[in-house]
Amino acid sequence: MEISRFLLGLCAFFYFYRSLSAASTCKLKAKFNLSGYKDVEKKKVVVGGMFPVHKRIASSDGNTSRVPVSSGCEGFNFRTFRWTQTMLFAINEINARNDLLPDTDLGYVIYDSCFTISKAVEGTLTYLTGQDEAVPNYRCGSGAPLAALVGAGGSDLSIATARILGLYHFPQVSYSSTCSALESKFQFPTFLRTIPNDKHQSTAIAKLVLHFGWTWVGTIAADDDYGKYGIKDFKEQVEEAGVCISFSETLPKVSSPEDIQRIVQTVVEATAKIIVVFSSDVDLSPLIVELLQHNVTNRTWIASEAWVTSALINQPGVSSVLGGTLGFGVKRANIPGLQRHLLELDPYADPLTEEFWETLFNCTLDYGKAVRQAKQRATEVNGTLSRAARGVPDGLCTGSESVVQLNNTYSDVSQLRITYSVYKAVYAVANALHNLEHCVDGQGPFVGNSCADITNFEPWQLMYYLKNVRFRVPHTNEEIYFDDGDVEGVYDIINWQVSSNGEISYVTVGHYNGSAAPEDRMTIMNDSIVWNNEVLEPPRSVCSENCQPGTRKGIRQGEPVCCFDCIPCADGEISNSTNARACILCSYEEWSNEAHDACVPKIIEFLAFGEPLGITLIVISAFGALVTIAVGVVFVVHIRTPLVKANDALLSFTLLFSLVVTFLCSIVFLGEPQHWSCMTSQVALALGFALCLSSIMGKAAVLMLRAQALKAARARAKAAAKAAKAAAEAAANSGSPDVIVTNTNNNNDASACANPEVDRLTCGHQRAIAAVATLIQAIACTVWLIILPPHPIENTSAQNIKIILECDEGSVVFICCIFAYDILLALLAFIFAFIARKLEDHFSEAKSVTFGMLVFFIVWISFVPAYLSTRGKFMVAVQIFAILASSFGLLTCVFLPKCYVLLVKPERNTEEMMRPRAKPRDGTSTGTSASLATAATEVNATIASTAIDD
């Protein structure tokens, strides 16, 4: 007994000593100001909860001259208060069940995080300590063990609490923290959630944007982890698919009118009609108010699950701005009995419920406060307090007000989405505790197959059961299990539609399941969507309209890739798809159509026999050949006449034959070019003109030589006449006037020069000239045909839309030499005829030849520019016209005067008409080839006349 007393005294001493030591070394730095619900008495297990019942912490004056006081909260949030009541309802429902934790009553400790990280940390430390004073790393409470924390609201709040809870391996089950950063088990090993990971939502929103073809979108995100990570994942996916971000703004966490004004201005000035918003309703609300004031319409908003069904955003009058909004909401469910629980609140039960009641009904439950407020109002009005106010002051709540009649978001259970997630989180903890409690000894999951004690377990032990829990939610029968802390990514696609009374209703227009096959993940009923301003067609939101087939995208320097110009494809190029990055070059046998969206076969072009132009040329060619033959027939009929004899009939027939050849060879140029036609046409033309021009040159050479001979004879005759006159004058002067002097030698010389029989170029010479000149051309053409013959080709470069079938000359040098030779013959013939142009008789043959050669040169000089300025079959037509025109010119000029005499004036076809005409007194007239036979008589007559005159 004495030993026992000694031991007790010793223990008391050590306890007192330790207390003194602790008092001297430990000091409570602060006392937190937390509001919420607490029920831990006589409870076997306590479940923690954290909800952002208030929107923010109350601002402090910043005075550092006094002891700091933990900030209070302001801005009561009815929606999140409903979440808080849902947790209480779920715990009460579980405690009333016999199949779930039948031997365990759950208690709870619920704190208000005030939507602020600092308050969430305060609540976490207090929760871990077990009492109102937070002592980190110590569990100071001695009551029921702590099970898990349900919370703590937004993603940034949960990140802060999860970092602390993870240090102690304390389970945390979130109902609304969707940030993808929380999936990291390295940073957050004990974090779980009953709401889908935002990586599913970001993918879903990206698919929605791509589904409607929007390539130009703006983004707005809250300045927290939820907004930053959500928008980041969304941007990565859409930008990879070719969508561009028009603008990207961040909502301030602390009220900032300047930032809100700047964001509104950005939205107004932006051309993007689609705006994706990752934010909570609390952070977004100030922006919506400002947008309403600026009447910013004609925008379609894409909502994240945090505000898609928020009554804080869906206020009266927002339909003009937010009508047509599309968003993703988490799974919705009905929870029987919840509404009744919400409506049966006792306003006097606790301070938080009192504040709810006072805020909801705009009154106070405190009688003294009501009196003070009534006195203040009375003083402001007339300075007296009414008798009625002295009894029951105005503004005092009765506690019997009806919550139902207000139709507040608190009591609205039509869109239980986050509320349902809270319900599932509480049941997840309860089922894990149930599995822990009913563990069979020897079959447990811990060391030695041991089990945990429901009355004294460690947080990490419950964490094991939470990670592996699998249960069905009451009333909905949804199966819940955690895959590495996350649940399936299932969403409803919600459309904000304006009802007939002007209120916005949430209409489900599709679904998204992140676990399905990629092609089956999203189903959306386009016809069920009502867009902004009740438009039925989806809005267009592109920086630049799609480039249609026939154009390509031209990137604008310094602008996003979605901003581009549509550049028409060049001729010969096509694009057959929308927004083609480059045009496709057509093959050489094809060409682009007018719209530049398809390659079509090029038009095959050649001057065909059957087309009108071809028929016309054939008729003209045939007519020319027939006329030439007719002229030959006329010459044959009159071959014995002096006119035909005087012009060397054989040479005339040769000339006519060559003209027939030139007329007919033009027909060979028609039709589809073949090897034989390419060679025949050019060679026949070259030889025909060579024979024609060499024959004319032979005639002209004779005329030139005779003109020169006659000119020389007349010069001598004139000299003789002058000598005779001088002799006569001398005789007269000497007294012998009867003497007559004659110069027979001169007469004989003149006669000899004018006689055709003594021409230096006879008919045989003329024929030889024609034969040799033609032979030279024939040899050149033969060499040409052997070495580099003309051949048909497909000319695709002359005209883009046509393939011109034409003849390639084979060698430009050869064809230039051959036709240059013809030009040389024509030039010589022209020179010879021009020199002999003064040999005039009744037919003026030299002048006819000169004029004919002038026509020839005019035609071919005009041909060159006309030929070079045309393309395709018209080049052939121009060449044929030149051939026909020059041939008709030569035929007309050389043979028309003769035919006129032979057919119309046969009386002039006599030997006398072949003689020269009388020489005028001025001596300008001369003879020609037809009159050279009588030239001597003319000379003698001239001499005699001169002598007599003298």
Structural class computed from helices and strand pairing? alpha/beta
Q: What global shape is seen?
A: rod-shaped
Main sheet specs: 8 strands, mixed
Number of helices: 26
Task: Identify low-pLDDT runs.
Answer: 1-24, 736-758, 916-950
Q: Span between N and C termini?
A: 202 Å
Q: Quote the beta fraction.
A: 5-15%
Determine Rg (CA atoms, Å): 59 Å
Q: Identify the strand order in the major beta sheet.
A: 10-9-11-12-13-16-17-18
The count of strands amounts to 27
**pLDDT averaged over residues:** 82
User: Percent of residues in helical segments?
Assistant: 40-55%
Summarize the helices and strands and which ones pair or pack.
Blueprint lengths: L1 H24 L10 E4 L5 E7 L2 E4 L15 E4 L1 H18 L10 E7 L4 H13 L16 E5 L4 H13 L4 E3 L16 E3 L4 H14 L4 E7 L2 H16 L3 E8 L5 H13 L4 E5 L2 H13 L6 E4 L15 H4 L3 E5 L7 H6 L7 H11 L5 H15 L5 H5 L26 H20 L21 H9 L2 E3 L6 E3 L8 E9 L5 E10 L8 E3 L26 E5 L8 E5 L4 E2 L9 E2 L4 E3 L6 E3 L1 E3 L6 H26 L4 H5 L2 H20 L6 H60 L9 H11 L8 H25 L3 E5 L6 E7 L3 H24 L9 H24 L4 H32 L6 H4 L20 H15 L1
Parallel strand pairs: 2-5, 2-6, 6-7, 7-8, 9-10, 9-11, 11-12, 12-13, 25-27
Antiparallel strand pairs: 1-5, 3-4, 13-16, 14-15, 16-17, 17-18, 19-20, 21-22, 23-24, 26-27
Structure description:
The chain has 950 residues and is α/β, with parallel strands linked by helices. Helices cover 46% and strands 14% of the residues. The chain contains 26 helices and 27 strands. The protein has an eight-stranded mixed β-sheet, sandwiched between helices. The longest helix is centred in the C-terminal third of the chain and has 60 residues. The protein is rod-shaped, with a radius of gyration of 59 Å. The termini are far apart.
